[in-house]
Structures are given as C-alpha cells and as structure tokens.
Amino acid sequence: MVQRKRAPLRSAEAKRARVAIAGATGYAGQELVRWMAGHPAARITAAMSSAPDGPPRALPALNRIWDGVVEPFSLERLVEEADVVFLALPEEAAATNAPALLDRGVRVIDLSGAFRLRDATLRERWYPATRIGALKPVYGLTERNYAAIRTAQLVTNPGCYPTAALLALGPLADAGLLTGDIVIDAKSGISGAGKKPSERTHFSEADGNIAAYGVFGHRHQPEIEQELGAPVVFVPHYVPLDRGILETIFGRLRPGTTVQDVADVMEAAYRDAPFVRLTGETLPEIKHVAHTNFCDIGWRVDGSGRLLMVSVIDNLLKGAAGQAIQNLNVALGLDERTGLLPIG
Amino acid sequence: MVQRKRAPLRSAEAKRARVAIAGATGYAGQELVRWMAGHPAARITAAMSSAPDGPPRALPALNRIWDGVVEPFSLERLVEEADVVFLALPEEAAATNAPALLDRGVRVIDLSGAFRLRDATLRERWYPATRIGALKPVYGLTERNYAAIRTAQLVTNPGCYPTAALLALGPLADAGLLTGDIVIDAKSGISGAGKKPSERTHFSEADGNIAAYGVFGHRHQPEIEQELGAPVVFVPHYVPLDRGILETIFGRLRPGTTVQDVADVMEAAYRDAPFVRLTGETLPEIKHVAHTNFCDIGWRVDGSGRLLMVSVIDNLLKGAAGQAIQNLNVALGLDERTGLLPIG
Amino acid sequence: MVQRKRAPLRSAEAKRARVAIAGATGYAGQELVRWMAGHPAARITAAMSSAPDGPPRALPALNRIWDGVVEPFSLERLVEEADVVFLALPEEAAATNAPALLDRGVRVIDLSGAFRLRDATLRERWYPATRIGALKPVYGLTERNYAAIRTAQLVTNPGCYPTAALLALGPLADAGLLTGDIVIDAKSGISGAGKKPSERTHFSEADGNIAAYGVFGHRHQPEIEQELGAPVVFVPHYVPLDRGILETIFGRLRPGTTVQDVADVMEAAYRDAPFVRLTGETLPEIKHVAHTNFCDIGWRVDGSGRLLMVSVIDNLLKGAAGQAIQNLNVALGLDERTGLLPIG
Amino acid sequence: MVQRKRAPLRSAEAKRARVAIAGATGYAGQELVRWMAGHPAARITAAMSSAPDGPPRALPALNRIWDGVVEPFSLERLVEEADVVFLALPEEAAATNAPALLDRGVRVIDLSGAFRLRDATLRERWYPATRIGALKPVYGLTERNYAAIRTAQLVTNPGCYPTAALLALGPLADAGLLTGDIVIDAKSGISGAGKKPSERTHFSEADGNIAAYGVFGHRHQPEIEQELGAPVVFVPHYVPLDRGILETIFGRLRPGTTVQDVADVMEAAYRDAPFVRLTGETLPEIKHVAHTNFCDIGWRVDGSGRLLMVSVIDNLLKGAAGQAIQNLNVALGLDERTGLLPIG
Questions:
Q1: In 10 A of CB D276, how many CB atoms?
Q2: Kindly report the CA angle at C71 between C66 and C73, in degrees rounded to 5?
Q3: B194 touches chain A (CB under 8 A)
Q4: What is the pLDDT of residues B164-181, one digit of tens each?
Q5: CB count, 10 Å around CB of B77?
Q6: Coil, strand or helix: which one is D188?
C-alpha cells in the first residue's frame, strides 16, 4: 500500500484539493455538496450515498449549483479519487469506514459521533460500533482546536448541540469564571432529527408542538461535559422550525465576577474568529444565523451573579456541514472563511 | 341471522344509540372519538384500530375526554356492540367490511372513498377493491342530500376536497348559472396526507414549501364531477399548515347573471344549513373554520361575468369526522347540530 | 347604592347567571366568547371592546356560535347587565374598572395582571396603575385556591406562565420536596404576545425563529415566586407556533426523595382536578392540550436527585380564558368542568 | 451639471462599479446588501434607509458579511457616491427619486412598481405618483429583455408575481401555443407583504391560514397582461411560509399542440438562461428555489389540450433583489451569474 503524504497542503496545492462526500443525500450531506460546489480551493471529485447499491441520482435542488450525480457508496473509489473525505454517514458506517480510509492515506472529516468520545466506557455505551485503535481523532470545534485540526488526519466534527454550548461556555470555563450547576435548555429545528420520516418528524405532529426528548440520556451531554471539563444538565427539545438551534444556558459566576469580565473573556477568545459574533446584552436570534456558518452568542448577568447565555447556530451548517468545511479549510492551510464567507 | 330494524331512530331512542369507530387512531378517527365522546345522544361502545392484532391502547391526547381504549379490529364485536359504525379505514378494508356490517344489520358511515363513485369504470380504476353488489350507498354531503341520508344504511362520506368544492358550486350548477370551464385550485393542510410518515409529510420537506400533486389524476376529480354533473379541472396542493382546506374556484356565469343572482341562489340553498356560513364578498379564511364543522363560502364577480369563489373547511371535520357525525345525526333523526354546535 | 347579594349562586340560580365580557376582541376575549356561548349555566349578556367608542362589530369567526355584537366599552352597561364580568382589558383599564364594578356589586374575574401581586413594592413596579385599597383579590389558580375562589368578589386570574409553573411546582414545594435553585425555561406561542401587530409578531420575524425575552425582568417571575414562596430563575421565549406554552423546569429534590415520592405528591394533589393530567415519565406535548383547558405535567428524576418537569397548557385557555371560566364555575357553585369538558 | 458617460461598462471597469442601495432595511433591501457585499465586480458605496432622518444603524444579521451602516436617505450622496443605484423604496419615493438620479447621470434599477406600466391610464390608477416624462424604463425581466437591459439607464425590476408568471407563459405566448383563458393562482410567503407589521402579517393570523386577496384588483395583473400581451385571471394568496412564490397556471393549448411542443419551446427559450431550471413533468417546489435566484418551471398537458404549469421563485431574490442584481450584471456587461451563482 502506497503511503501518501499527510502534511497539510499549502494554499497553492490546496487549490487542487480533491474532496469527496459520503452520505450526500442527507440534510448535512446536501449542504456539503451545495457549499463545496462553490469552494474556490477544492473540488468535489465524488459524492456518494450511504448505500453500496442503487442507481446514481441527481440532486434536483442543486441543479446548476452542482451538476454531478450521487453514486452508490464505494470505499475503493473514495480512496482513488479523494485527498479528503467528508463522512456524513450513520455512526456504524462511519466507525467502519473512517479507519479504512485513514489506513489508505485519505484524510477524514467525520460528521458522525463515532469518534467524539474519548472515555472508553462512554464511547462503548453511545457508539458501540467504534474501535478506536491507534486513531487520534481531533475534536473539530474549530475556534477552540485550530492548531490540532491543521495537522489532523481524522477530524471528528462536533455535534450540533455541543457546538452551540461549547462556543458559549468554553472561554468562561477556561477562565475559571463559572461555579455551580450549568443548565442547558436546547431548542432545535426538525432537520436535526434527520431526513428519515418518522412520527416525530411528521408535519402534523411537529407543527404547533414542542417536545422535550432525551432527558438525562442524550449522547451530546457527555460530549459537552468532555470538552467543557464540567458536568452539565442538558435537555434538548424539538420546536416547529426547519433549521437552527437556540440554547439557553443558565449558570452562576464565581463571586466578584462582573458582566464586564464575561465580555472581556468572550471578546478575547473570539477576537480572530470570523464565525463567532458576540451580541452582548442583545440576545441573539436563530434567524440571523440560519443558512450561515455563524454562531451568535449573547449574555446577561443579574445582580446576584446569575449568568444567562443564549447561543444560536444553523444546525446543518455551523452544527454540521459548515463547520466541517471550516475544518477542511484549516486542514488544508487555507483561510478558514474560504467558500463560506466573502474574504476581503 | 336476525334482521334488526332499519328505520331511522327517533330522538328518544337515539339517546341510546350505540356507535363504534373503526380506525380510531388515524387523524379523522381521533376526531370522531373526541367529538362523539361529548355527543349527548349517542355513546361510543367500541373504538378499534384498523389492524386485527396488537395490544389495546389509550389515546393520551383524549384522556379525560374519552377514557376508553382502542382495541384491535374485530368485525364480530362491531356487529355485537354497535347500531352504527364509522369506518375510518383504508379503502380496501372499507370495501370488505362495509358490506359485511350491512349484511348483519349494522348501519355504516364510511369515511373512505370506496363507495363514492357510481360509474363502474371510474370505480374500478380508483377503488378496485370495491364490489358494489346490491349496496345502495348514499352520498353524504349533508346539505345536499339530507333526505336520502335519513334512511340510508350506507352513507358514503364525501372526500374533503369535494366537500368544499360541491358546497360552493352545487347550488349555482343546480340553478344553471354556470357556463364554461371550472377550475378548482385546492390547498390542503398536511394532515390531509394522513398519519403515516413519508417524505411528503416530513416537517423539513413541508415547512416553507408548497407542492402541487395529483395533477390531472386525483380521484377526487371524478367525485366532484359526478356530484356536480359537469367537468372540472382540479389541482390540489399541500401547504405548510396542519388542518384546513381552502379552494379557489374560477368559473364563468351565464350571460346576464349578476352577483346578486349568485347571492340569492346561495342564500336560498343554505337558509337552513347550520354549518354553511356565507361570507359574500368578504372572502373566507381557513382559520375561521379550523376545529369546527363549518364551511365558509365567499365569492366575487367581475364586470365580464367571471366568478371567483373561495370555500374553506377543516379537512378533518367538515371534510371527514364532523360531516360523518352530522350524517349520523341525520340518520338518527336528530338535529344535525347535535354534539357539534350549541343548539338553542 | 343597592347592595346585591354576594353569596355564591347555587346551580339552579346559576343557570341564569348573567355574564359580560369586556375586551372581547382580543385573543383571550374571543375565547371567552366562544366558550361562554355554549355554557349551559350562564349566558353572555354583553360583550364589549376595550374602547368606549367605535361602531358595534360582529365576530365573523364565531358566527353561528355566538351571533351577538361587540359594543363599545360601557361601565354603566356592565353594571346593569351582568352578575359577573370577565375583564380582558389592558392592565391600566383593569386597574380602574375592577374597583368600580366591585363597588357596584358586580363580581369580577380579571384576566390582567393588575391585582396579582400582593407585595406593594413589586406591584408598584409592575402594575403602577393599580390601587389595591380594600380590595381582596383572590388568586385564581383554580386547583390550588378552590375554596377562596368560591366566595371571591374579585378573582385575579393567573398569568399564563405562572399557571404552568405553579401547577407543576406547587405541590412539591408544599410538600417540602424541593431544594436549591429552580430554573424555568418557558416557551410560548406567539398569541401570547397579544393581538397588536409588532415587529415581534410579524410572521417573517417569528417563523423559523426563537427569541428569549424579558430575561431577569419579566413580571411573571415575581408572580411565580409569590405563589411558590421560593425564588426562581425564569426565562420566557417566543417560538413559532400560535397557541400553547411548554415549560421545562429544572430543580433538585431534597436528599432521599424518590421519583415515587414525586408521583405520590402529584397524584394526591390532583386526584380531584379534572383539568390536570399527570403523564409521569412520559413528557407531555403542547399539541395534546391546545384548544383545551388541560394542564399536562410529566417529570423525570435522575440518580443524583435532579428533577426535570415539563408542564404544558394552551396559553389562551388554561392560561387565560379557560381558567377564567373554570373560576366562574367555582364562583357560581357549579361543577368546574361546566362548559369546558363533557360531564358524565 | 456634468454628464457622465452612460455606455455599459466593460468587465474591467465593472470591477470598480460603485453601487448604492436606497431602502436597505426592508426585506428586499437587506437581500441586496447581503448579496452585493460578496459581489466580486461591484462594491456597496452607500446603503440608506427610506427616511431622510434618524441615526445610522447597523444590520446585525449581516455583521461580518457587510459591516457598513445604513444611513438616512440622501439624494445628494447617492449622486456623489454611486454609478448605479438600487431603489428599494415605496412607490411614491421611487417615482420622485428615480428621475432625479437619472437626471444627474446615475443609472437606476428600481424595485418598486412605479415605472412598470406603460399604459398611461393603468399607470395613473395604480401608480398615481409616477410622471413618466422622457424616461425610457426598460422592463427588467432579464431572460426576456436582455439586450435592452444592457444599455438601459432605468431598469424597472419586475414584480414578484409577474416574474414567475411571465417566465412560464412568455415563451408559449410568443410561440402562439396558447388559446383561451389563462388562470393564475398564486401563493406567496408572508415576506411578500413587506416588513411593516399589520394584522395580515401577525403570526397568529397567518399561521395555519390562507387568505386570497386582491381578487380582480391586484396591480400585478395589468403588469402580467402588458408583458404577455394577453388577458389573465390572477388571484394571489398569502400562505404560511416566509419566502417563496408558487404559481399554478391553468391554460389551454392551441389544437394539435403536444407536450413535446411545449418542452421544445421552453427549452429553446431558456437554453442559455442560468437561472431558469425546467423540471418538465416533475412539478417544482418552493423549497428548491428559496434563498436562490432560480425560477423552476414544470408543466403537464392532458389529453384534451389542457395545460398546467407550475412556476416557483424566491420572492425576495428572483422576485426582487436577485433579479435586480442579475440586471445590474447585464447592465455592467458582466456574466449575469456574477455574485449570484458560482461561475466556472
């Protein structure tokens, strides 16, 4: 087996980066195709469904944006045609295919949860198909892990809920400003439930409705706790909208901490982060980030040191495909905005 | 087999009418349960799913309104326990069970389309499982077929789209006021697609979207034409709302006909119809009829004799369960408003 | 001034109870009209807008349900024509008119917040127009204040958010089962923002969006704290649906308390409460209570004593008009379900 | 007054095109800002509100995409700073400012209806503030008027409804394939009603509802008829979604015309049109064009020569801002896709 070089590509080479998308017909997969089709420094060399059979099919919504066809899944063709592969597959498929690709010298950005948890017991519980072996997955929360992503062979793209939670809480936790319980009440659009029809995703069940789910048992809770280094209470809900997540975060500041301290820490953390927009006391809204890769974060502090944060993302972009492309850019040595935001 | 009497029950007897619902877990079925639970002159003696097996199940949304359980389907129990059965079953099941019930002396109000079409060729095309035999189905558009429904053993409850179309157009067609093409552009809420999850009913497909379907090939078109006695162009659409149908009807008046003629005909037709509300030049809105058994109808006429009508109903009530109960009331000799609207 | 008797009416008399609605064109006001129109033991003798002038107007959506007209506001006519008046007016108008009606011997059920807060400082802050004087407002959370409501002259109907919160937390607080912080994350449909058009209620702003508001400064927070006797963190959000509130409540149980203890306390509290439905570990959904007067409550407890409760209501019914009618029933000595739920 | 040259700019010059947006805070205006911010061959030199006073304000949703401020309206500054001005103003303001700008040598792309109607009587009725004088407005339906737009000083951008209707019907009308009545049933998202809050745009009125409006009296009807050269019946509706228009068009083909003839004409017409996607017998959906400048068109023909077409656009893009930018590109001599679609 030929070993291909694994060093991060420079900008010049990157212009020719060959990128494939496995799982291109799901919601996140189609966003990958849509955005990669216009990427100036990489090109889609293959788009595959998650099944190894079935006829090739076009993506009519993307006609004129991307005029290729989605082919059946083929590991062999991924190896042949791609320098980097986005895996937007079910966990089990990702658990199997990521190691196989890495083994053949192909870099992988995995959008599933298969490689996110480092604790073996938790991983066994939530992602039993995963065999970590000698793999060194790098957690792909771009703003907080930039350096490691640059050289990673396997980027494990964060979950949608953890992305919004960690971008809000991470800097404050790092600075030691938090104390006591952290409660995260998360509201997600229905696209977060995936494309497979079910009672939950039926319009007549979701419309006019809200449903809490996964209480005390959602696999994104250990993911948040792992990256934050602190326990959280996390309750997700589906709300009747298509795209977007809003998380309302309830915490408490260490005595003596002021709202200005919060602002200072947040601003320092995201001074150079093009996709994090701090809104301060003006709480952010989903509508401002829908169809973008932004994460908007606002906060309030009351007289007794209670902290309230609101963090919003598009679950399919910053919560999935957008962040994956941002990670691709970093891994290729490109400006992280490439293909996602005008640079100028 | 004992022949039970088939004469319409009087009000006194009706107080004891035993009514069963087959197909009680679907959208229309649950509305039947909800409204029949409060019906002052009949009682639910059985509620069944459409499958002959599976465990009994409650309907949590209806707890305290109706505290029974939905049992597996059993023709035998329907015969034993009910004077009248609402069939809210798939067409094939209705085609089989309606004759069996009638044969055993049970009156049937069928919400499926199995017995709606009188033309054998059309029926064979759209409802191939139906064997009409000696059955005499009565088309249950209450306002236009009141007398026949009183003594019917088999009421074939109209389709949702035909209900809205025929209540608007019927009186004008009867009066000979129409000429030329009739175009019906119908918009339905997603509950009209039924409870079974599919790509079409997925929130993320339906939200923010409109889809025309069944163009030149929807089985409600021959149903409308049969009852109207004239050809129509009928195109239904799904729009992102849960409950309700709005039909925009484009026609042309016979020369010399005025808007006042239209109003006179409509008012005469519905003078005694408690569930038809004429809004005249103020075009009606779905929101005013949602969760009710009303059909609201408005119209406009331009200087050249063009007629525009708008007709709205709740597809699950006047378009299904509500009209079925209205028909039950008529069949039992009760005030047709019983259980549907305050009387007095 | 003639003193009219104030004792609760018995059922026989109640059949003739004369009820007026002031503020009949708003969302809660129209629900009052809709439901009172079918009330078997009271009749609407007047329905008024909140303005003293303007032409009488019908409520087209309620045609055939209630065929009266909404007249301009007149205190004098309310006194003449009603035994009990529902005030669905802005706070300032309620603050003025409630005392005037009471003074003339008319019982008042006030849906505004004007008389809810007992602490003078808080009342002055949130409802500055209110002069409490010798008034003895009774907090109308029916399930928790039944006896006092029976003889109250002034029932102050609870806020929508407090209703859902207090029905969930009240019994546990009474039983001393709670310890530590209580966080209430509340999600409301847009009808909760009232009928007046604004940027917030614009479809294109609300659709696909969620907005936290009133953080650390919503007047329902002191109302909850007053009735609960404990501080809470309360953050409301608007979500893109019309009717309904879902509250996610995060608390902690006193050490040693089990999920069975919670269930026992809740079941004991609501054994005789027809409108509270306990769903236990199955978390409730807005859709099951929309267009009803129910409050559905479910809960989960984790291994470390964390409590999560979910409480849902229709904000216009149990959160406003429905509970007001429930209170009317109690005040008139009727079964509290009268006109709201089949009794049988 | 210095006369600036009016010839279409070449690509090289176009790179420096200075573009201003008047009316930048409305829905179409914000889309102009969003898309022009990333335009590679023009730059936003000024963005103004429609009012001459008030403080400068940012557009938080566009932060990082466009970091300028929206200033009060100033004709003088538009003249100084822009080669081309997009007017996204109310009709009256457009009627006044367009001539003033043209007079000073600034090219104008007007998104209002002020200059769309050529018939003086109709224009007087629908746009009474307009004084056409010596102006030569060019109707900016890009695909059908490309050559004239290249040199136009005043492009009158089409209405949203006419865009969808004319792109579907225009080629068939030109080819003489149509006969008899044409009925257009149009469904629009609520953003089409503009940003100003009203009862119509209130979420609780629009959600779960559909409303026909402007029956026999919408100003887009004469606009469609003018460009089509044939009368149409046009009825618009608001449906509960934010962005998008779907038009269902009912017509009749000249005897002998086949579905293949229709396909041939449509394909010939749009062979080189990057933003028109023909879907043939697969009817198009709003969701596929939302947030894009595409118009998707499908059709069906029945055995008797009836034609049904469905045409969909995003009302704020191809129906407003997107087409305006497409027209800018043509006027500047650029590839019409510039800034709207990847080219390559």
A1: 23
A2: 130
A3: no
A4: 999 999 999 999 999 999
A5: 16
A6: strand
B109: CB partners within 8 A, 6+ apart: B84, B85, B86, B87, B140, B155, B157, B324, B327, B328, B331
Is the per-residue pLDDT at A8 higher than 60?
A: no
Give the model confidence (pLDDT) of C309-344 as tens digits: 999 999 999 999 999 999 999 999 999 999 999 876
Please, are residues D290 and D314 in contact by the beta-carbon 8 Å criterion? yes
Q: What are residue D24's phi and psi, to 5 degrees?
A: -85, -5
What interhelical angle do D321-331 and D27-36 show, nearest 10?
A: 50
Direct distance between the N- and C-terminal alpha carbons of chain B, in angstroms, rounded to an integer: 42
Read off the pLDDT of each residue in B254-278 and give the average, rounded to a whole number.
Answer: 98
Residue among D306, D323, D278, D313 nearest D187 (CA) = D313
Residues in chain B closer than 8 A to D316 (CB atoms): none
Q: Which of D35, B69, A208 is nearest to C285 (CA)?
A: A208
Which residues, 6 or more positions from A95, have their beta carbon under 8 angstroms from its beta carbon? A112, A114, A115, A127, A129, A130, A131
Residues from chain B that touch A61, judged by Cβ atoms under 8 A, are none
Instruction: Out of D160, D165, D190, D239, pick the active-site residue.
Output: D160
Q: Chain D partners of C197 at a C-beta cutoff of 8 Å? A: 197-199, 201-202
Q: From the CB of residue D18, how many other CB atoms can be counted at a distance below 10 Å? A: 16
C60 φ, ψ to 5°? -55, -35
Any C CB within 8 A of D57 CB: no
From the list B287, B291, B343, B342, the residue with the least C-alpha distance to B316 is B291
Point out the residues of chain D with pLDDT beneath 50.
Answer: 1-14
Mean pLDDT for chain D overall: 94
Let me know: does D314 contact D289? Beta carbons within 8 Å.
yes
Per-residue pLDDT, C16: 77
Strands D17-22 and D84-87: parallel
DSSP D101: H
Q: Which residues of chain C have pLDDT under 70?
A: 1-15, 344
Summarize pLDDT for B51-83 with one digit per residue, the tens: 999 999 999 999 999 999 999 999 999 999 999
d(CA A276, CA A168): 10
Residue A306's pLDDT band (cuts 50, 70, 90): very high
Inter-chain residue contact A185 with C310, CB threshold 8 Å: no
SS (H, E, C) chain C: CCCCCCCCCCHHHHCCEEEEEECCCCHHHHHHHHHHCCCCCEEEEEEECCCCCCCCECCHHHCCCCCCCEECCCHHHHHHHCCEEEECCCHHHHHHHHHHHHHCCCEEEECCCCCCCCCHHHHHHHCCCCCCCCCCCEECCHHHHHHHHHHCCEEECCCHHHHHHHHHHHHHHHCCCEEEEEEEEEEECHHHHCCCCCCCCEHHHHCCCCEECCCCCCCHHHHHHHHHCCCCEEEEEECCCCCCEEEEEEEEECCCCCHHHHHHHHHHHCCCCCCEEEEECCCCCHHHCCCCCCEEEEEEECCCCEEEEEEEECCCCCCCHHHHHHHHHHHCCCCCCCCCCCCC
Residue with tokens 């009172």: C36
Bridge partners, D276 (sequence order): D295
In the prediction, which pLDDT does B343 show?
78
- Tell me if D204 and C195 make a contact (CB, 8 A cut-off): yes
- Give the closest-approach CA distance of A167 to chain C in angstroms: 18
Q: Which amino acid is at C286?
A: I
Structure tokens at D273: 């049109």
Q: Could you tell me the pTM of the whole model? A: 0.95
Average pLDDT value for residue range A146-153: 98
H helix count then E strand count, chain D: 11, 13
Question: Which tens digit of pLDDT belongs to each residue from A64-94?
Answer: 999 999 999 999 999 999 999 999 999 999 9
Q: What is the pLDDT of residue A342?
A: 81
Q: Which residue has the tokens 């709005």?
A: B246
